[in-house]
Every structure is written in C-alpha cells, then in structure tokens.
Amino acid sequence: MPEFIHRRWHGLHMILAFVLLAVLTVLLYFYHWMYLLFGGAAIVGLAIYAWYAEKSFREDFIGYVAKLTYRIRRAGDQVVQRTPVGMVLYNEEMVVVWHNPFSGELLRMANFIGAPLLDVLPVLAGKLEADGSHTITWRHRVLQVDVYAKERLLFITDITEMTALKERYEAERVAIGIVHIDNLEEVTQGMDEKNHTLLLAEVTRTITDWAATYGMFIRRLATDKFLVVTDVAHLAKLQEDRFQILDRVRELTIRQPIPFTLSIGFGAGGPSIPETGQMASSSLEIALGRGGDQAAVRIGEKLTFYGGKSNAVEKRTRVRARVVSHALRNLILESDQVLIVGHKFPDLDAIGSAIGVWKMVTWNEKRGYIVLDESNPGIDKLVNLIQDDETLASALIAPDEAYYLCTPRTLVVMVDNHRPSMAIEPRLLQMTRRVVVIDHHRRSDEMVEEPLLLYIEPYASSTSELVTELLQYQSGDARLNRLEATALLSGIILDTNHFHFRTGVRTFEAASYLRRHGAEPEICLQLMKEDLHQFLRRMELLRETELLPAGMAVAAGSETREYEQLLIAQTADSLLALDGVKASFVIARRPDGLINVSARSWGDVNVQVIMEQLGGGGHLTNAAAQLSETTVAAVREKLRHVLAEYAAQAMKGEDGK
Ligand SMILES: [Mn+2]
Fold it and tell me: How far does residue 573's CA lie from ligand 1's centre (Å)?
C-alpha cells in the first residue's frame, strides 16, 4: 500500500488522539485511582481494535487494488486484441518486434514478429522515414497506414468500405447535359414535310439510341434540343469514347447539302443540381461559341472539349453573335481582370475592336487593359486622341506591365488575330488558360491552344464589326462615347476600304449603330489620312510595278530599304484599285529583316492558294507570306514562277470545263 494512503487513515492524528486520551485519563486519577484503571483498560482495548481495523483495511485495500489492476489489464488486453486497428512496433533494423493479432488479420498473416517490416509490407519502402498517413492497396483491401517514425509504430486501418463508398458517391454524382442540333433550320429549309420529318426522326432515333447505350435519361426540350441526365461515371465513359455521337450524326446526314452537326454541353460536380444545370447550359454556349459540332464538358472547374472536326458549315447568324456576347460576358464576370491583345503592328481595326471589348469589360464593372507596345503611323492619330481621353488613356498598358498583371484568373481577349506568334505579347497566353479569340481572318494552322471562346467569322468585314455586334447584345442601356464609337467605325472603314470590300448588310448595320452612338465618319477619314512621307514611300514601292498576263500586278521594293508591314499591305490595296489589275502582289523587306509579300485580289484570282505556295496564307482575296533569309529579287523570281504555274492550272481548269 502506498504510504500516503496509509498515513491518511492511520497517521499522526490517531497517535495524537491516543496521547490526549492518555493525558485525560491520568488527570482522572486525581479524583479516584479507579478511574485510571478503567480508562487505561479502555485505551488499551481501543488501541487493539484500531490496530486490527488498520490491518484489515490494509488487506481489503490491497485486495481491491489487485482486483482492479487485473481488470484493467484484462480490458487493455482486450482493447489491443480486439480493436479494429492494426498496431505494429518495429526496431531500428526495421524488424517487427510486436504486433496485435488484428494486424495479422488485416495483412492475412498469422504472425510476423521477427520478420523485416519491408518484407511484410514492401509498399512501405521509403515511407517509414517520417510521420505520415499513406493509403495502400493490399490483397484487394484498401489500408490506411499511419506511420509514427519516432515511436517506430504503425497503425493500420481498413478503409476498403469507406473508399468504395466514396468512389461510388463520386461516380453517382449527377451530370446534366444539353444536346443541341446546330443547323436544323438550314438543313431542313426547302425540304418537303415528309423528308423533313423522316430526317428529323432518324436523327432523333440516333440520339436516343446513343442515350440508351450510355445509360442516360433523355427528354426532348425543343425540336432541336434534348436534355440528358446521367451520372459522372457514365459521363466519363462518354469522354473516353470521345463523344462519337458527333461523328455519327454528321455521317448520317452527310449526303444532305449541309450535314447536321450537334453541339453538346455537359456539367457535373457542381455544388448543387441547379448549378450543375447552369454549368451544362454555359458549356453548351461555349461549344456553340467555338463553332459548334463539338462537346464541351465541365466537371468542377475543368472544361474539356471533344470533336469540332468539321469547319464546313461557316454560317454567321445573329443567334451566334448573341450567344457569343452572353458567353463573353460570363467569362468577363468570372475573371479578375481582362487583358486585350491585338496583333503586332496594330491597325485601326485592332485598336478599334480592342476599345470595344474594353468598353464591354467596363460595362460589366471589371478592370480591363488594352496592351499596346508602340504606336505606328497607321494608328498614331487615334492614339493621340486616346491620350486626350483620361479614362481610355489609363486603359493602355505596355506588354511588360500586362505580363506582370496577368494571373491564372485573368481573361485574355485576342482581337483581330488568332495566331499566338502574331500577338503583341504572346507570353500572356502562357500565363492563363482563359483565352478568348475574336477575329475575322480565316483560321490558320497556328491557333491558341483550347481557347475558352473562339469567335472567328471570316465573313465579317472586320473585327470592329464583330465587336460592335457583341456590344449590341450586352444588356443595359450603357452607351459608347464619341471617341469609342469613332474608333470602332474607323476599324470597319479601314478593313472594308471605305465599304468597298467584304461589306455586308451587317457591316452597314454595325456602322449605323456606331453612328447613333456619335461616331464621326469625318474623324475616321482624318485618322486614316496618311502623311506625305508615307504617300511617297508607297509610290516608291509602286515605281517598279510590272503587269503580268491575266491582270497580275507585282511590285517590289529595293533590297536595301525597309518598309512597315502596314505600308506594304496598303500599297497592295492601292495597286489593286488600278484599272486592269485583278490581283496585286507587293514584295518588300520589313524592319525585322523578313521579306513580306502582301497579296490582294478582286476574287477571280485565289491569292490564298498562291501565298500558301510561298508558305503563307490568308483569304481568297487577301493573303500574305513572310520569308526569311532571302532577298527581294529571289522572292520575286519565286512568285513569278508560282504565278505562271497558277495561270497554267487555271487555263487547264477552264479547258476541262
Ligand atoms: Mn482586321
């Protein structure tokens, strides 16, 4: 028995009590000696009783403690034996020195005391040096191993059921999709009722069969829209098969003048069902915005695209403009800021459209910046006007500044260009994956990787026209100011060469919208006026023009002089305006040393094909090529050769008819 407990019961107070008793008894002797006799006998009796009591207390107490100790030890044993947690102790040599029976059960081994730990659990190699929790798969079970390196102790828990449940939960989360037939109107236009119905029934059957194969619930929302509901596991299967339905439907109607294409938007993993549905419709908007004939799948934050093989159907609808406008607004709202990047050597169209996009950003109450490196003669006058407008001037930033501002949440909008190598600051495209392209140039091979939104309309006159349309579909009654409207209008006027080229109904509509917002055509002309120096340089290029057969005019600069890209392009424009010229080609050396060829045509000559022969590209009527490590004379010779071949081919083609 511990001394402290003993002392509590049989300590000094007992002795003091007896001493006091003895003293009192002695005092009684003064009255009569008989009292002393009785008192003494009583004290002795009490002392004997106290001694016995103390002795039996000791015995009972020790017995009680022993029993308790035994029970606790037994319970402890039970805990170690029966707790559904494996415990393994090992020594410095990594040899198991002890384990509880349950770890044997977990690892399907009766006894492994004395075995090297890494022989027992080779998967733990390299994981024993530090404390940590590891999930391992062991004989079809998923085990969680907690390592206590200092204590050289492992706790092993079986988490197979929990993992299976978790996986099942993830797999069974709702995925919502919307399937849209892109071009129902166009395909069925002019078709009789019977064929129309038959074709639509065929497409519908294909789509519903597809839904059944992948275990999806499908309901028709409208003639050209279906709602599908499934779970993440089935969606994963669809992704694995790369949405073959897109090809199947296109092939089904391939004999039609315009084949059907589908656009599919999927959302999954949203915080709630309504939000998942919202994700599905925004995915569909993005798929449509990228040109349709593709599937966009958004799981959580991640957006992936499938399909988009055909680019045969190049249609331009107001619906698309509206859809793109809304999608762009959502992207702007989701971003921390917007950086607008035009092409190198920006022209009025690049700056005008950049101002338009910047305006859209400010309407949505976000910060937007226009990236501009240095001005050039083509935009000097506009840049001067911008400098007078305080708000707009503060939106202009240098490429380096943009690079430091850019975060992964920043939206980069490329205007009037879709080739990263042509962007003023290509590094921005590496800083963020949130990229939108708005352009009117025909799609080239080089393209931004997976832009969130791709709005390339080769049938539009200019990017400024496209942006003007997008502005019209932004809600609210915010207005452009005079300078902004004028900048956009000058972009249109420049790219259409005063409404002479590529001018459609919608070009004029855009122009009239801008005029209503105060755009001043006179200022546009002022902005485009070239100075005498530029004019003389243009004439210099034209001096050596030769007119080849079939109306092909070729002009070339001297080997030693350098000309700006813009000047070369403008010279090709003015050469085309001359009587008898069907196609114009201007060859000159640029300040960066490349030899540039700008080609223009009225449409009879396909300058795109010709420029492709020189390694360039562009449109049927407007193309260019850049060649390195060569001379103007060599390029001129090569071009002559290509033109002769082209003429011969054209002759053959006509004979063949
Ligand atoms: Mn343009």
Answer: 14
